[in-house]
Amino acid sequence: MGRFVARRLLLTIPVLIGATFLIFAMVYALPGDPIRALAGDRPLAPAVQAQLADEFNLNDPLWLQYVKYVGDLVQGDFGTDFSGRPVSDTIEQRLPVTAKLALAAVIFEAVIGLIAGILAGIRRGSWFDNLVLVSTTLIVSVPVFVLGFIAQYVLGLKFGWFPTSGIGDGWYSYVLPGLVLASLSLAYVARLTRTSLAENLRQDYVRTARAKGLKPSVVIGKHTLRNSLIPVVTFIGADIGALMGGAIVTESIFNIPGLGRAVYDAVLRQEGAVVVGIVTLFVFFYIFFNLVVDVLYALLDPRIRYD
Amino acid sequence: MTEPQTERVTSTLEAEVAGSAPIAEASLWSDAWKSLRKNPFFIVGSVLLLVFLVMALFPQLFTNADPRACDLSRSADGPSGSAWFGYDVQGCDYYANVVYGAKVSVTIGFLSMLGTLVIGVVVGAIAGYYGGWLDSVLARITDIFYGLPLILGAFILLSVLPDRGVPEVSLALIVFGWMTAMRLVRSTVVSVKDADYVQAARALGASTPRILIRHILPNAIAPVLVYSTIYIGTLIAAEATLTFLGIGLQLPEISWGLQINSAQNRLRDASHLILFPSAFLSLTVLSFILIGDALRDALDPKLR
Q1: Whether B23 and B100 share a structural domain
Q2: Which chain B residues have any C-beta within 8 angstroms of a chain A C-beta?
Q3: DSSP conformation letters of chain A
Q4: ipTM value
């Protein structure tokens, strides 16, 4: 087990370096001149331009800029944006918002997705099963931003049940955006649970358990679910990282001041340091949760460990 | 054995293989077709897809109105008998605009799917067939791209490109979306590359490209077909999302994403401006997902 984790950790390093370099190269290889963009309509004096270019390492070749950036990064220094504010301040302020949003989404995803999937998987072919099939197909087909508008319009404006914008109402304002952010994964979880449960219900060990005369609730709850939920649990775990990175659309629609919104604004303003810093954080979370899930998988399923 | 003889033996053997292949193939595909014909989801999906494909190719068949003939005095008027979908903010006929929007969505969907497949098949075949360090390096590169979600990666890439038309948006979607196709092809190649019939082809002196193209890659057709059908839907939704965020296609292009984007602040007073392009967009994505789901059920013998 220790060797498995160590190997997995080592494999993470090149991926992390590669992904951050990819972001870095995309943002800083851009043809525009960020110093001129910063100055706006009134051009800066050449001396000031040179000083700023020097300060942001803009005269170095790309790879050296990257090495310097990573050198700062491992010491916790994310650099500053053009107004001189440390990017780590922005992250500190906005990370809790995105984390809350992701948490709300994961709760919806797990609770609704699992219940729908289990009920559909137990009674395959029933009207509920068909309902789950049809509704998940519809949810997957409607793009998230359209779903966001529908939720805003119907639940927010028509019925007035939920706030449609901002985070002024505490946890309550995360319900609607969380549900929208979770929608796609929720549908996947329901389908995955359904298929996995249905597959396991056909296995010999389930027939044995039934033949022993165990109650159906024990056969399903204790024997079948335990095996069927392994892929579901790992999917949900890996999804936390993906949800944080996917929050950019949801946060824009619901006007939520999280990291996704910050990336969105920073990209439009060409604030390279902010974009690279936050997206690097997203990649880090994505890789971290995948790592956790891989280890979890090995713990839950001995067949992986002994490979 | 002299050259021509080898050639003849190879070709007879391959003729035999080819001769028996249509029977085997016919059974898989004709079985699939039999179950597809009876699948209501497949029928609904195909009809929808056909409608949208015709709409993308010949929008004039659906509307006589010119999408660019606008009159500001009708700005954001609601649906009526003369204009089914009402008018947009500029006072242009909205039905005509929504119909003409099908073209870019479908084009980008197919274009980026094609690019994804080319990269996925080439890289996946190389990684799976040669294995070893090459496979490891390619697997790490795949992991790197997986670290960036499709929308986020494409969003950043597009933001640094000077023009953003159909080719650029497709390119961004290909660059951050080829990985799953690659893994799919790779796993198929790995699972059959040591099979007896592949060894036989190799023993007969078939070249590597020939082995790959004639003997190994056909095994990937069914899974790749299922995947790409569903994935086109995802790509179309992704394009609309990027355009909606203001970083995809630009005016004066006619696209559903742009229409929804320019209407997003009129949700309260002119909701039809969001409703119609959203409905067309969702139905297009739905058609691909319905067909893909039905194909998977029909082609996967495990589910029968």
Answers
A1: no
A2: 41, 140-141, 143-149, 151-152, 155-157, 159-160, 162, 233, 237, 240-241, 244-247, 260, 264, 267-268, 271, 274, 278, 281-283, 285-286, 289-290, 293
A3: -HHHHHHHHHHHHHHHHHHHHHHHHHHHT-SS-HHHHHHTTSPPPHHHHHHHHHHTTTTS-HHHHHHHHHHHHTTT---B-TTS-BHHHHHHHHHHHHHHHHHHHHHHHHHHHHHHHHHHHHTTTSHHHHHHHHHHHHHHHS-HHHHHHHHIIIIIIIS--S--SSSTTGGGGGHHHHHHHHHHHHHHHHHHHHHHHHHHHTSHHHHHHHHTT--HHHIIIIIIHHHHHHHHHHHHHHHHHHHHHHHHHHHHHTT--SHHHHHHHHHHTT-HHHHHHHHHHHHHHHHHHHHHHHHHHHHH-HHHHT-
A4: 0.82
